[in-house]
Every structure is written in structure tokens, then in C-alpha cells.
TrEMBL record:
The keyword DNA-binding does not apply. Its cofactor is FAD. Keywords: FAD, Flavoprotein, Oxidoreductase. The keyword Phosphoprotein does not apply. Residues 228-376 form the Acyl-CoA dehydrogenase/oxidase C-terminal domain. CDD domains: ACAD. Pfam families: Acyl-CoA_dh_1, Acyl-CoA_dh_M, Acyl-CoA_dh_N. One of its GO terms (molecular function) is acyl-CoA dehydrogenase activity. GO terms for cellular component: cytoplasm. This is Alkylation response protein AidB-like acyl-CoA dehydrogenase. GO terms for biological process: fatty acid beta-oxidation using acyl-CoA dehydrogenase.
Length: 384
């Protein structure tokens, strides 16, 4: 049974994180992007307060919470105007996979630094010819004595310049059948070449293409079991979608707040523009859609924490779809509410326009989310 009322502890967490995020705000986030700087101060302060490791088990220095607690952190920072993309990747995807699938030694090695904020990890799955189709990944890892040798390429990988390691999805050959199967490897970022991808995103966190040219890795770079790669991978994809939904709903809340404030203050013909239904109704509709997306996200997080990964996958895809749609709608309507001022840099909305559009594309496109829902929720024939 899903509880739709958050605990007092999580509500307190939300309030504290929002207070921290508001201390920095969109001027800090977009200012760092404009200067080519990073959001190091915010990251370090969030880590010191224990927010980055809130979902990491206590025995590894974390808060011992679940993915819903981390989702609250992600959402509230985005609501304050600081949508930290690496939060979606480092503690949510990599942290979850290692905590659930890593060996005891790997947990001891990788999780404490993640919880303290001293270590940041990226996640490498997308390839030029295998964007949404993880079954067609061609990056290979082959055994060579006691080592692994990694070859291939990844693209649109976030935060590589800030990470010490990348959790890379590769394929290995089954010694018994000869078939290729997915496996996960922790790869140090100084072991391969990476190049930035020029995009229109206004963010301190950049995208990269990674080139693995016979990168030699020790045996223990393999995370968990070689024969359980797909299950381990999917264990990290539900949290990824939940975090993406949380960040999108946070951004939608941020944009709606700015639109409402402006609609109350801006006067035309002797009255605030918010008195006019042409302004008020679209904002009210967005508020409804935000709350619906937040409830779906909460449901997905609760199911994931309960270990019902199949049901969590369904809810996570629905949450990701709903949140991405309303985030784009909210930013667009906030700009429309501001009129010409919506395109002025000082109001902080135009910078978010390209960024929020990403929420309909990654980490899973809206079309692939709908494919999942059609197949698994509606039991329609598979279309791909």
C-alpha cells in the first residue's frame, strides 16, 4: 500500500534542502554556467549536511534512507533553481547499483566517498548507434589473463569532467554459450579519452563523448556478478527515471512560482495580470499537472523502496513522462506570462528553456516511456 502522506522526517528534509537551495538559487546556477564554473560550493554544502548520501546505507556513511528521500533532495534543489544533473547520476544510479549489487569490498570502496560528496561518479550507457536500445550496446569487455580490456564508445555522458570514475555498461562474452551479455565496470576517468559535446544547454554540467581504446582494468572493476549485468542495470534505471521526474517537477514548481509572483505584481489597465483568466487558468492547470506528476513520482519511489521493481518501473516511466511534459509546459507558460521580460536573462527563465526540453528526451525519451506503458500497462503488442 502506497502512503500518499510524506513522513514528518521527509517533510523536514524537504524544508532544509529548499532552504539551502534558496541560499544559492538560479542566479548562482546559471551564473556558474555563464562563467564556465561548477556548482562546487552548493555540492560541498549539501554533502556536509548529509543530503547527497541520504539514500546510502548507514554502514557506508549514508543516511540510511530510500530513493524517495533522495528524490526529495533532487526536487527541492530544482525548485530553488538549482537542478543538479549529477545528483541524478552519481548517488541515484551508481550509488543504487553498487549498494544493491556490489561486493562487500566494492561497497566499502565506492560508497563512503559518494555519501560524503568527496567522490562523484558518472554513468555510461548511451552509444551513438544504441541510444534507447540497451540491447544493442557494442562496447565490449574481454578477459585478458586476470584483467579486463574495454573497447568502444559512449556519448552524451554527463559530468565526466567532475567524476573520478564512470560506471560503464559493456558486453562480455559468455564462456559457455559465446553469447554477449551486459556487465558493469567502474572505469577511472583518467584511463580514457573524452571530448565535450557542444550543446545549447545552459548548465555547469556538461555532456561528453567517451572513447575506450583497449582500456585495461583490474578484475575487481567488474561490479557485482558478470552473469547478472542486465538485472543490475535495470536496478539503477528505475532510480534514474525517478530522479529525472523529481528534477523535472522541481523545475516546473520553480517556473510556476516565478510566473505566479510576476502575475501578482505586474499591472496592466489598473489590475494585476493574474486577475485575468487568460493568465490564471493556464497556471492553475499547470499546478494540477505538477501535483499529479509528483504523486506518480512518490508512488514510483515507494514501490522501488519496497523492492517491487516491475511495478516501480511502470510507475517510474509514467512519472518521467508526466513530469517531463509539465516541466516544459511550465517554463514555456512562465515565459509567456512574463511577456518580453521572459526572454530577458535577468529573469532567469530563458536559460531554462533548452535545459527543460531535455526532460522530454533523457534519460528515456517520452516515446520510449509510452512504448513501455503501452506494452506493460495496457498489454498492447510490442512495437519495437
Amino acid at each position: 500500500m502506497i502512503n500518499f502522506v510524506e513522513s514528518e522526517e521527509r517533510r523536514d528534509l524537504r524544508a532544509a534542502v529548499h532552504q539551502l537551495g534558496s541560499k544559492y538559487g538560479e542566479s548562482y546556477f546559471y551564473g556558474a554556467a555563464a562563467r564556465g564554473a561548477k556548482t562546487t560550493e552548493l555540492w560541498d554544502e549539501a554533502a556536509k549536511a548529509g543530503y547527497l548520501g541520504v539514500s546510502i546505507p548507514e554502514e557506508y556513511g549514508g543516511g540510511g534512507g530510500d530513493i524517495g528521500d533522495l528524490a526529495a533532495v533532487v526536487e527541492e534543489l530544482a525548485t530553488a533553481g538549482c537542478p543538479l544533473l549529477l545528483l541524478v547520476v552519481s548517488p541515484a544510479i551508481v550509488g543504487t547499483i553498487i549498494a544493491r549489487s556490489g561486493t562487500d569490498e566494492q561497497k566499502q570502496r565506492w560508497l563512503p566517498g559518494l555519501a560524503s560528496g568527496e567522490s562523484r561518479y558518472a554513468f555510461g550507457i548511451t552509444e551513438p548507434d544504441a541510444g534507447s536500445n540497451s540491447h544493442q550496446i557494442v562496447t565490449r569487455a574481454r578477459r585478458d589473463g586476470g584483467d579486463w580490456v574495454l573497447s568502444g564508445r559512449k556519448t552524451y555522458i554527463s559530468g565526466v569532467d567532475e567524476a573520478g570514475h564512470v560506471l560503464v555498461v559493456a558486453r562480455t562474452e559468455d564462456a559457455r554459450t559465446g553469447k554477449l551479455k551486459p556487465a558493469l565496470f567502474m572505469v577511472p576517468t583518467d584511463a580514457f579519452v573524452h571530448q565535450p559535446i557542444e550543446t545549447g544547454l545552459v548548465s555547469p554540467e556538461k555532456q561528453f563523448t567517451l572513447f575506450f581504446d583497449d582500456v585495461r582494468l583490474p578484475a575487481d572493476a567488474l561490479v557485482g556478478r558478470e552473469d547478472a549485468g542486465l538485472d543490475q542495470l535495470f536496478a539503477g534505471l528505475n532510480p534514474e527515471r525517478i530522479m529525472a521526474a523529481s528534477q523535472a517537477t522541481g523545475t516546473a514548481r520553480w517556473a510556476l512560482r516565478k510566473a505566479v509572483e510576476y502575475a501578482k505584481q505586474r499591472e496592466v489597465w489598473g489590475a494585476p495580470i493574474g486577475t485575468h483568466q487568460a493568465i490564471a487558468h493556464p497556471l492553475a492547470q499547470i499546478h494540477v499537472e505538477i501535483e499529479a506528476a509528483r504523486l506518480l513520482t512518490q508512488k514510483a519511489a515507494a514501490l522501488d523502496a519496497a523492492g517491487d521493481l516491475l511495478a516501480a518501473g511502470e510507475a517510474a516511466n509514467m512519472a518521467k513522462y508526466a513530469a517531463g511534459e509539465v516541466a516544459c509546459k511550465a517554463v514555456d507558460q512562465a515565459i509567456q506570462t512574463h511577456g518580453g521580460n521572459g526572454l530577458a536573462v535577468e529573469y532567469g527563465l530563458v536559460q531554462a528553456l533548452a535545459n527543460v526540453r531535455l526532460s522530454r528526451i533523457a534519460p528515456v525519451s517520452r516515446e520510449m516511456a509510452l512504448n513501455f506503458i503501452a506494452q506493460f500497462s495496457l498489454k498492447l503488442p510490442r512495437s519495437y
